[in-house]
Amino acid sequence: MTTTTALRRAAAGVTDAVKVYGGGDTAVRALDGVTVDFPAGRFTAIMGPSGSGKSTLMHCAAGLDTLTSGTARIGDTDLGALDDRRLTLLRRDRIGFVFQAFNLVPTLTVAENITLPLDLAGRRGDPAWTDALVDVVGLRDRLHHRPSELSGGQQQRVAVARAFAGRPDVVFADEPTGNLDSRSGAEVLGLLGRAVREMDRTVVMVTHDPVAAAHADEVLFLADGRLVDRMAAPTADRVLDRMKAFEVRS
Amino acid sequence: MNASLRLSRASLRAHRRRFAGTFLAVFLGVAFLAGTLVMGDTLRASFGTMFGEATAGTDAVVRGADAITAPGQGQGVRQPVQTSLVRTVERVPGVAAAAPDIEGRGQLVGADGRPVGGQGPPTLAGNWITDPRLNPYRLAEGRAPARSGEVVVNRGAAKKAGLRIGDTTTLRTPDPVRVIVVGLATFDGQDGMAQVTFTGMTQADAERYLTARPGQAAAIDVRAAPGVGQSELVRRLNPVLPKGVEVITGQQSARENTDMISGQFLTLFTTFLLVFSGVALLVATFSIHNTFAIVVAQRTRDNALLRALGAARRQVTALALAEALAVALTASLAGLAGGIGIAAGLQALFPAIGFPFPDGELVIKILSMALPFTVGVVVCLASALLPALRAGRTAPLAALRETDVDTSGASRPRAVTGATLGALALAATLGGVLVTPSVWLAGLGALLALAAFVVLGPVAATTVVRLLGRPLDRLRGVTGGLARRNALRSPKRTAATASALMIGVAVVSLFTVFGASLKATMDQTVSRSFAGDVAVSNPSFGAGGSGLSPRLAPALNRLPQVDTAVGLGRGVAEVDGRGRALTVTDPAALARTFDLGTVIGSLRDLGTDGIALTRAEADRQHLRTGDSARLTFTDGTRETFTVRAVYGRSELAGDYVITRAAWAPHRTQDSDTLIAVTFKHGVDADAGKAAVKRVAARYGNPQVQTRGEYAQSSAGGIDMMLTLVYALLALAVLIALLGIANTLTLALHERTRELGLLRAVGQTRTQLRAMVRWESVLVAAFGTVGGLGLGTFLGWVLVKASDGASDTAFAFALPPTRLAVVTLVGLTAGALAGLRPARRAANLDVLRAIATQ
Known about the structure:
The complex is a heterodimer of chains A (250) and B (853). Chain A has 250 residues and is of the alpha/beta class. Chain A is built from ten helices and ten strands. Chain A has a single domain, classed as P-loop containing nucleotide triphosphate hydrolases (Rossmann fold, 3-Layer(aba) Sandwich). The longest helix of chain A is centred in the last third of the chain and has 18 residues, at 182-199. Chain B is built from 24 helices and 28 strands. In chain B, the strands form six sheets. In chain B, strands 6, 7, 9, 10, 11, 12, 13 and 14 form an eight-stranded mixed sheet that branches. A six-stranded mixed beta barrel of chain B has the order 20-21-26-23-25-24. In chain B, strands 5-16-1-17 form a four-stranded antiparallel sheet. Chain B: GO terms for molecular function: transmembrane transporter activity.
């Protein structure tokens, strides 16, 4: 399994990533020399206890935050070499996002939210693709509704559709099921999984929920800003056991 | 300290930014108000001091006892006194010196050939009083006039005219007089008495050019011998004076002069400024109310938590009001300081632009501090009252609920109330304008219309913004679409923000429309009443200018091209006990050059005891042709005149007409205000005009204009007024813009997470800035459109009400170019107001924005 992973092209990744918040005595090393590739066409989950640096890793890899040292890449593009404008354009054109909550612009309809990154870019996108996405997430009858008229699960499904609308190189999901009940959460995770396996998309997801992590192809474990373990073909029980080990240690 | 106060202090400290807009709005309003009052008092006091100082040597003034004042004229015309009386006065024991004071109108022509002054303040000429202590002017350079033709000019006028000692120029009295400047004078150490120009001549010259006949003076100035007080002097002088002549103390005379200037000029000026500070404060009310409403809405959770923890309604309300009070007090206090600063700045600035603002301490009365302070505090507290009450009503449970955006606004009761108000407004104005002309009813209607606009704002906001924003979607794509929807988010808030600008724009458009209508009215008046080919006039404004030489009209009549040249002079008399302005002319010629409407009787043979008047005046005085009217002239004589004609139109001809022969025995300084010229049949218009011009050049070179040019220049003063009004309204518009910027900043603060999301999914900073700016432009557009509508309507009401209230037929005109400029300024201003909020929003840190709760 590891060999196949290595052979795959990396959709995104970081090398020797260090992120320090603050300075002097109060400096916090959120990332302490992490090197990892997120292979294309795979669903990778990042896990770790609170304060392990998993969110920071995602933010830096996605160009929302900058590294103190080391490099972050999307495809072959070194994010450190980009200014704010180019980073924005890169996020718009090559990255999709699903956040924990507040994913949608309240003044736009479902359909408009889905095509928002495309509209911002002034691109028409691929109507057949977005159309297919709408069916996959099952929101055809809600296209002209406002986000406030949807349930939390439906809102997250819209966010998923938006994330994939522009066929990005990679979709980053930050605790996408954190605010959902287990059934809605399972639906969203199922969508992310289908996108990877049926549509050959790449997903990187940060989560603290072993059940969610079990939907991934591989789980990376972070602790104290370091990559401490990885697990291929995870199941919820195995992930939970691994996580318990952290608690015992700390 | 009690808990509410402690909390509100903490909140103020934490949200200083939010209240910056409120602070500025109150500050500007109060500063403008206080500045106006302080400046008015200071000017009034310095004029008083100036007169007191300048005329300190005059202990008594002997003058005609009765003054005749025609409506609209500030200063009455007094019967002149005989200069021979000077000798009688000088013989009274206790009199040290006496000198005649001859005063008339005399406008200097500058080195560039253009007349000096005449745009408001009087242009005076008089005799140079040789007793230096009786003369209010002091010789600063050169010498006093000794020979005929020599004059002393006040230094300010000389500067403006570009004249130096030894220069020769023309003085229009209005008969042109060649004069040589031999001296420059000051008035109480200043270059002049404000902008008033003064030319001092020898007594003989003054008698010759400024009075109807030699031996007359406006007054006799008297100086007392040492040891004789002013009232003692008056007591001694009284017995020697003939009938119809009175004496007052020098102090009283100075006070009268000061009061006259205060009454005529300063009061008007300060009232004008006060009205505009009122508009600014009204606009501020909306901005302030809006800010507090938003702050309270944003703090629903905090307030609910307080309520859940056991705070009483009253305490929560008090908390909000305490914040408002703190802002009100600090802003009002700062405003007072700002106002004093404004007054001091003007005091320093005025002399630099040629308006000698008298020196001296600023006069800061308790009232001019207490009033603006109170107004500032009351405006601020009243604006915050409703939001504060709303804060008190917060349900404790609201702490648990997700706060959602306030989408109320288009509620049914609001629509019904607004529509009712609108209908009432329409009914009242139409009733007051069309059915039974009543300014009060029309005014009530205008007020109701304003209320209707404010109430209906939120209802209209949705539709209007959607409509106005439609082109944005097409032009600006998703950025424009987002901007439009953001502007639509809270119709109530959008409407309240726009209301402030709406009022500003409404007042601007009201004046614009009214100004254009006045111009159109003048145009219509001239084209309807003026049947001549060219008009000769000396453009002037207010008390300035000296009119036309009475010898010009006869000279023009001698031209071979001219059929009729008729001069219109002005006189004043009491008609049946009331002061009236008279038109002194050749009535028969008048009928040929002016369209007087329907004439009953004949204007041909008024003679020396005939009078003609307009239909409206005749109705008012219950006079008909053949009736007699008693006229009292300024020389005290009473005569009975017979009404020989009643004519329809008074616009240019005036209300009362008498012949020159009838006026001659009673005349004062002679001048014509307008000469209408018709050419003989077959005379080319240009050739005729050129011939008239050649003659006019010899009589002080007044303007010779065709009918169209004359109509246009008559309206010139209106543009000047409009410019001033625009400048003053800039303050109100500025406050409205601060309101827009403030609301926008607060709204963006609410949307922090959304902004973060937009940035995360790829909105560039440029796009975000554009989105915010367009939202601002849309809100401004809504206010501008509303203001244009309201202002135009009110302009129409004002025109129609004026039409009903006066004899002149008012024309209503819409100036498309000016209104387009107003719109453009409104929109640009909106874009400007959005600049800072846009920049702040664009600089948000994406991650932090997303993480905001």
